[in-house]
UniProtKB/TrEMBL annotation:
Record-given protein name: Diguanylate cyclase (GGDEF) domain-containing protein
Top-level taxon of the source organism: Bacteria
Covered residues, full protein: 488 to 765 of 768
Domain EAL residue range list: 23-276
Length: 278
């Protein structure tokens, strides 16, 4: 790879042990990225499995790095979590996503996504005032809290400790909480018992069960969700066969390349218009 002076020594992924100096530099770059709007969001439709109707969107962050091109979140979120920059980054993501949803509601009314999902990190939930920050941003954009789901991973939930109070506060305001990548962690069942959540997102390793015979897990998870009164979204649906199978199992909502990739907001909005208006 071509060496770029001043940046070539930077390692954004965790597999390479970055020095304190590297993190300081990454920190400076990321801070600048947040400030200069180098970050942007893509929106992946969450669809109703029986008719393909768009019912929601998951916001997924990207970094238009001035030198490295577009970076996927897996290449900078872990570093952001370690440096604490995840806090301003999440704030940027929440503010941008809420601004977008407010715009869609104004333009499309009932055609706007019913729910907007945003990913947050364990570190966010340890930040004093996080729940208040989220509800303030919602009020500022006049968005009903019921329209927003915060996605947390099982790892996050395991690290919660005292910050579980934040989840309670968020839920009391009407915001929904979903457990992301469900099934991939180690204490899934006890978590559902201990952690205040409204829904689960079945990890794509189970969704893509048609390929490797993991159907029983997908089936067990939907039964579990129904028994506990949780909603379930199947992630990573890539084929019509998978979609049909999930529908037959009782899944109502799904996400995946079969329906749509994460899209820039203008492209996402095209899916909001009823066909006859196109
Ligand atoms: P995730 O929350 O599990 O998001 C789903 C990931 O799967 C996304 O990758 C999405 O583009 C991808 N995906 C969607 N449909 C399919 C499919 O049919 N097949 C396959 N193979 N993949 C599919 P992405 O956008 O690269 O995000 C990766 C992870 O980065 C996310 O996983 C999430 O954990 C994290 N992330 C993304 N945006 C944010 C953010 O704003 N804040 C935080 N804290 N984390 C974020
Ligand atoms: Ca997610
Ligand atoms: Ca996931
Ligand atoms: Ca993930």
């Amino acid at each position: 790879a071509k060496k770029i002076p001043g940046t070539a020594h930077l390692h954004f992924d965790e597999s390479m042990a970055a020095s304190g100096a590297d993190y300081a530099q990454l920190g400076a770059e990321l801070r600048e990225a947040i400030h200069d709007d180098q970050l942007f969001l893509l929106y992946q439709p969450i669809v109703s499995l029986d008719d393909g109707r768009v019912i929601g969107a998951e916001a997924l962050v990207r970094w238009a790095h001035p030198v490295r091109g577009t970076l996927a979140p897996d290449s900078f979120i872990p570093a952001a979590e370690r440096t604490g920059l995840i806090v301003p980054l999440s704030r940027w993501v929440l503010a941008s996503a809420f601004r977008q949803l407010a715009e869609w509601i104004e333009r499309y009314g009932d055609d706007a996504p019913e729910v907007l999902n945003v990913n947050i990190s364990a570190r966010d939930l340890r930040e004093p005032g996080f729940a208040t920050m989220v509800t303030d941003l919602l009020a500022q954009h006049r968005i009903a809290p019921e329209k927003v789901t915060l996605e947390i991973t099982e790892t996050v939930a395991l690290e919660l400790g005292d910050s579980v109070a934040h989840l309670h506060q968020l839920r009391e305001s009407g915001i929904r909480i979903a457990l992301d990548d469900f099934g991939t962690g180690h204490s899934t069942l006890s978590l559902l018992h201990d952690c205040p959540v409204d829904g689960i997102k079945l990890d794509r390793s189970f969704t893509q069960s048609a390929i490797d015979g993991r159907v029983p897990v997908s089936a067990a998870v939907i039964h579990l969700a129904q028994a506990l009164g949780l909603y379930a979204v199947a992630e990573g649906v890539e084929t019509a066969e998978q979609a049909e199978q999930l529908l037959a199992l009782g899944y109502i909502a799904a996400q995946g390349y079969h329906f749509a990739r994460p899209l820039p907001p203008e492209r996402f909005a095209e899916s909001l218009r009823p066909r006859d208006r196109e």
